Amino acid sequence: MKPIVYLLFMAFALQSCVHRKNLVTTMPEIKSEKWFDSLFQSASKPFQKTIAEGSARNIQIIYTQINRNSQNEPSFTHYTYHVNDSNYFYPASTVKMPTAFVALEKLNELRSKGIDSQTPMITDSSHAKQMVIYNDAWNAKGVPSIADYVKQIFLVSDNQAYNRLYEFCGQAYLNETIRKKGYEKAQLLHRLEMPLTAEENKYTNEVRFLDTAGNTIYTQPAAYSAYTPLPNAVKLGKGYLKSGKLVAEPFDFSAKNRFPLQELHKSLQAFLFPESVKKNERYNIAEADRIMVLQYMSMYPTDSKYPNYPAPEYWPNYCKFLLTGSSKSNLPPSIKIFNKVGDAYGFLLDVAYIIDTEKQVEFMLSTVIGCNSDGIFNDNKYEYDEVGFPYMKELGEIIYQYECSRERKIKPNFAALLQTIQTKEY
């Protein structure tokens, strides 16, 4: 890492620290639902109607207020709305965020092997139905790397990029690592967009890393996971489509991924503000990789050269649900969103840290909403456009406007962060 880049990162890291007395290791409900209800009184009628359907839609919200001291050190106050870990929702692509963090932590443990996030990575097939990945036409170098997969995850939420990191980590390592970090109710059991059984998802591929001459410098053998999933007996809805036919019984999510909103929110906080959580809850990621994630998490897909994400399929706010919904209108350049979204099986999610450098505003906001009123899964009749995206846009606007009006004794200083996230193609 270049010295100046390292110093910029350390400046941001120091600015993100909190005093020991301000450490937040739990997510208490500081204010009741009444606080949110009061805030929502001035919302639009469609938004209020959606909120009134909250229990049926499994709406959950976590808003984290951030205040700074004279040294620009943050402290956190969490406000929760109907957050209940027992109310299962499918986390969809939001699981890609903690998976990317764990993959970079594992990579950091392997640095003595002479590899890093830029090292070409080849994925071999070691079991039935596994994919072989030797080349990457989207990459300027023609060969994929962990850095490429991380970029694709945060810019466009690529499913295959997540699958390669799932395979690199291995199911057992992935789950054991998040468990050690305190995510006791989360579990990551399967690849995405690949019709594999629970047993097939236990098998992960051989992975090889190459030097610039194409020689193998490290091989991670194929693995089989002995991880025993947590009890997760969950059936939702009243039916689902299978092979085009309706099955009139609840859809079984028992073998699906699980990551409660509270734990997703904390995972993002642990990455952005590592000093605000216990040491064992932090991600041990190399400084260069942390900067890379910060850049890609806040970057727009249209800013990317490799891969190139052209319009109209992609737009600047792609994968930014809060504040924008499905709108293709650009946000003001002063607003930066560090986030991960998800949408699948009728569930819509966003887990975000939002700043406005001009108005000197910052906050964290995470939410999930169900958009499947008919209770039928796999029919693609989800109300994302009618209900989910308008809800996301207005919720973000409500909290943002509240933050703009909220008095702060000390304004946050984003200078170091802004220099850290200056876009760089890896």
Give a description of the structure.
The structure is a single chain. Helix 5 (96-109) runs antiparallel to helix 6, helix 5 packs across helix 7 (159-169) and helix 6 (146-156) runs parallel beside helix 10 (287-298). The chain has one domain (3-420): DD-peptidase/beta-lactamase superfamily (Beta-lactamase), CATH 3.40.710.10. The longest helix is centred in the C-terminal third of the chain and has 22 residues, at 384-405. The radius of gyration is 21 Å and the shape is globular. By secondary structure, it is of the alpha+beta class. The strands form 5 sheets. A 5-stranded antiparallel beta sheet has the order 2-1-14-13-12, sandwiched between helices. A 3-stranded antiparallel beta sheet has the order 3-5-6. The two termini are 12 Å apart. Helices cover 31% and strands 18% of the residues. It has helices spanning 3-15, 33-39, 45-52, 54-57, 96-109, 146-156, 159-169, 171-180, 261-272, 287-298, 384-405, 415-420, and strands at residues 60-68, 74-81, 121-123, 203-204, 207-210, 216-220, 223-224, 235-236, 239-242, 245-247, 251-252, 335-344, 347-356, 361-370, 376-377.
